[in-house]
Specification:
The complex is a heterodimer. Chain A is mainly alpha-helical. Chain A is 65% helix and 0% strand. The chains are: A mainly alpha, B alpha/beta. The interface between A and B is medium-sized, with 25 and 36 residues.
Chain lengths: 77, 623
């Protein structure tokens, strides 16, 4: 029983890892939800910060190597 | 520099804010080596131009306790930028870079062995009127060449402080760090409005003494052979050939050791843990998947050892020079060589390195071609299939047949890239692409840098195994294990699993090229990273075979027993072109700012892969 529970948990963790990698939008929703849950549960501040940082995600954009690529969605031209 | 920005710089320096310094200079003058020395970073360095294409930032503290925020900028020959990477340097120095204030201090790095070229750029930087420090790098190499440089005279004539450095030696940047404490952050005492070349000649005459016999140096003697129109290409072909032979010949003992370790771990887990789902996940999922891929670490490290030696020695730009005619015949610019070469490690940095190409059309074509270069992630797939299907025997008593096949796969990919380039550049026929290339001095590869480079590659590979491959192996195991077969079902349980159903759904598309449903299933996670195809195959076969004692070690014999030779060759042909991993497609999107090139790349690679596999399968079956 415990073995099955750990197996399901591991598979879920891996599935979430790939879902957040493949869809950053899902990742932001997921980590925002996790952040709210952790806050409601009065989890340690460090854990909340960890989830919050992931919820914010990385800013989209290009290499920032030159000006004027905003209209290109961050791509070089 | 105007008075306001100068006072701002002074206030930052006197206060708690770190001194913001930017490293600039010609390509391949050793900026990144100095950056790594000062900041303790490990950015990629190599003995050729165009390695740094983005700004990199690091921090360090001088001996007197002054905090410094150091920017490492792409190399450029002039402040008149012609490519995106050069524009980064120009904009940062001019204070026009988005979200980046002008640096308090510009540290201009010049190579002591090539002052005639590099001082010209230093004079351009000085003309910006910003506080500046001139670093004379590679002073050890200059001494070996017999060059004597009067630093005080050069400093006096330039009107800026000058310090010597050896970027590749431990402690080689100590005087630079100390100079930051001693110097006054102020604009240069002189600027120049006249002819820069004339000023360079004057500076050289006043501050540099040449050895009596300047021409008699080892590098020139070596170049007589290496750049020879006949011997040069022969030497290049032999080097490449030996590299691929070594991948198979040297790696086997280490691979056997890893294999034994993986087998021991699987046996121990099976003997220790109860027979339940968790044990199945650990042995058939994690160990079969990750263990199979990790075995190829020695081969990857041997390949990178050769590449690093060629990089460090200064041979690679010579190879670019030798191949320029071949690349020009396909309509490619000489500047495409380094990005395409980088793509042999991974297409992602290769595509980013196309920023050094000025012509937008050339850059676009190079981006489309980069995925055709055989990235290191494909090596485990090649090695597995070659090991399983190509006999380990000698040809002519010298050449290893497996190494020959690997060489042929790499050569096939390069030839295909040239053909694709020719087609894509059809419209540009007759347009000349002169290659201006600075050939660096030959250098004996530093063992520490080689060890560091190999360690970084091993770390990258192992972190991929620990994240991408382990997680996908777990998911693949779950898809191959669930749902359980219905009561009274006949046949292997994996046929009833989700993976089995997905594989059978894909089969109509891939059956004409000789693939079975297990290969079809492995192709999907292979889109995340090529080597995952190996771990996916291992997991699918481990779950499918009931008595797999050591699933990782059994994969090659299992494949050779269950697949025909045409199927294996067809899969090899598929992976020469195989549609790209997600990371490559994402970086194409980022670099081009459009989804169209992503769709074109994925589409044409899929088409080529399918066609090559189709032809290979049918031709192999005919014999």
């Amino acid at each position: 029983m415990i073995g099955t529970a750990i197996t399901v948990l591991l598979v879920l963790v891996c599935a979430i890892y790939w879902a957040t990698r493949l869809s950053p939008a899902f990742g932001r929703v997921f980590w925002s939800g996790t952040d709210r849950l952790l806050t409601a549960c009065h989890a340690p501040e460090g854990v909340q910060f960890w989830a919050r940082r992931r919820a914010q995600g990385k800013k989209a954009g290009g290499c920032a190597g030159c000006s004027g690529c905003g209209s290109k969605g961050g791509g070089c031209h | 520099m105007n008075s306001m920005s100068q006072s701002a710089a002074h206030s930052r320096v006197s206060g708690q804010s770190p001194l913001r310094a930017a490293l600039v200079g010609n390509p391949n003058c050793g900026k990144t080596a100095l950056f790594n020395q000062l900041t303790g970073n490990r950015q990629k360095v190599a003995n050729y131009a165009g390695v740094t294409v983005e700004r990199k930032e690091g921090r360090f503290v001088t001996p007197a306790g002054r905090a410094v925020a150091l920017l490492d900028l792409p190399g450029t020959y002039s402040m008149n930028a012609t490519s995106p990477d050069e524009a980064v340097t120009r904009d940062v120095c001019a204070g026009k870079y988005r979200g980046e204030p002008a640096p308090d201090l510009i540290i201009c790095v010049v190579s002591a062995t090539n002052l005639r070229l590099h001082l010209r750029f230093a004079l351009e930087v000085r003309n910006l009127g910003r506080p500046m420090l001139l670093v004379l790098n590679m002073t050890d190499a200059a001494s070996k060449q017999g060059l004597v440089i009067d630093l005080d005279r050069l400093s006096m004539e330039m009107g800026v402080p000058v310090v010597p450095a050896v970027g590749i030696r431990k402690g080689g940047a100590a005087r630079l760090s100390g100079a930051l404490d001693a110097m006054r952050i102020a604009p240069p005492e002189k600027t120049l409005s006249g002819d820069l070349h004339e000023e360079v000649r004057r500076l050289m005459t006043l501050s540099v003494t040449y050895p009596p016999d300047e021409g008699n140096i080892l590098g020139e003697k070596i170049d007589r052979w290496v750049l020879h129109p006949v011997w040069g290409p022969c030497i290049l072909a032999v080097l490449m050939f030996v590299m691929f032979q070594a991948v198979f010949a040297w790696a086997q003992p280490l691979m056997d050791m890893i294999d034994a370790g993986v087998a021991w771990l699987a046996d121990t887990l099976r003997a220790t843990l109860p027979d339940n789902a968790l044990t199945g996940l650990l042995t058939d999922g994690v160990i079969a998947g990750a263990g199979t891929v990790i075995e190829f670490l020695p081969q990857i490290l041997i390949l990178f050892f050769w590449i690093l030696v060629l990089e460090e020695s200064g041979y690679l730009p010579r190879a670019a020079f030798l191949l320029d005619r071949v690349m020009a015949s396909a309509g490619l610019s000489g500047r495409s060589f380094i990005p395409l070469l980088s793509s042999f490690a991974c297409a992602v940095p290769g595509i980013m390195a196309t920023r050094t190409i000025q012509n937008p059309r050339d850059r676009f074509v190079t981006i489309l071609l980069a995925p055709l270069m055989t990235c290191s992630a494909r090596l485990p797939v090649y090695a597995l299939l070659i090991g399983a299907f190509i006999p380990d025997r000698r040809i002519g008593g010298i050449f290893n047949l497996q190494g020959l096949v690997l060489f042929a796969l790499y050569a096939g990919a390069i030839l295909s890239a040239l053909v694709v380039a020719r087609v894509l550049k059809q419209r540009d026929r007759g347009v000349e692409h002169p290659l201006l290339l600075e050939l660096p001095d030959y250098r004996f590869p530093n063992p520490r840098d080689l060890a560091l480079g190999l360690w970084q590659r091993a770390k990258i590979f192992l972190s991929r195994v620990g994240t991408i491959i382990v997680t996908l192996s777990v998911l693949m195991w779950a898809l191959s294990s669930w749902p359980a077969p219905p009561a009274g079902a006949v046949g292997p349980s994996i046929d009833y699993s989700l993976a089995g159903r997905i594989g059978h759904l894909m089969l109509p598309l891939f059956a004409p090229i000789g693939f079975n449903w297990q290969i079809c299933v492995a192709l999907i996670p292979g889109l995340a990273a090529r080597e995952v195809a190996v771990s996916a195959l291992a997991t699918v076969y481990a779950v499918g075979v009931a008595d797999s004692a050591d699933p990782a070690a059994q994969l090659a014999p299992l494949l050779s027993a269950q697949w025909s030779l045409p199927t294996a060759l067809s899969l090899l042909a598929w992976y020469v072109f195989a549609p790209q991993c997600f990371s490559t497609l994402a970086v194409i999107r980022r670099e081009t700012g459009s989804w169209k090139p992503v769709a074109v790349t994925a589409g044409y690679l899929f088409g080529l892969a399918w066609l090559a596999a189709f032809l290979t399968w049918h031709i192999a079956r005919a014999f």
